[in-house]
Amino acid sequence: MSDTTRESDRILNAAGTSLQVNREGGYHRPADSIGQGSRRLKKSHWKKKLGILGLAVAGLWVASSIVGVVIGGLGFSGLMATALATIGAVFVFSRWPKMKVPRRENLNKGDVRKMVGNTELWLEAQRPALPAPAVKIVEDLGVQLDALGMQLETIDQNHPAARDVRKLVGEHLPETIDSYRKIPAHLRQEERAGATPDKQVAESLGRISKEIDEVTRQLADGALDDLAVRTRYLDYRYGENEETSSES
After folding, report:
1. Which has more pLDDT, 74 or 209?
2. pTM (2 d.p.)
3. Helix or strand or coil: residue 91?
């Protein structure tokens, strides 16, 4: 329990520091995994690929050995053919099967770890379509989602607060980005109602980022009954982004 607490505190501190650095226009993370959840899923995917590759290569050499025994030796040409087949297997299985991006409607399914990892993977895939300020916030969300996931693991998943937080992360966060992506690219920098869609999506994601940080700290303090996300997050979904989407 103490080890889990220390790890939780470490991630919380990292999330707070990362958020502050991001607000001050600090560093930009490499364009790979934004959090531990997506990194864990990618690692598991690569382990499966290596397992398939290992079986394929072993099968090739076992089959070659059997053929060699039957025909009285493979010879140089046989060994070269086996080596080329091995290189071909490495080429194919290093590219297949590819890591699939989770579907938006599936983000909130499964246990907490799966929800966090899938949401991070989905967010990573959205970065090319987002303006630079929103990309920075998305990359910062990885650390925050890791911290939130650890807190959710320690509480009853049937608690209303836990369900609302999962809905915030698994549904309303991606809906904010989807609302922006529905706007044609050539209209995203046009000012409407005093702001452009590019600015609006960054502001909305910034609010959600702050909300996740606040909720995570409340969960860490055990203040389940103080969570008010069920009313506040609806504004993020049905506020500015929805108006912008409908106008466009």
Report:
1. 209
2. 0.71
3. helix
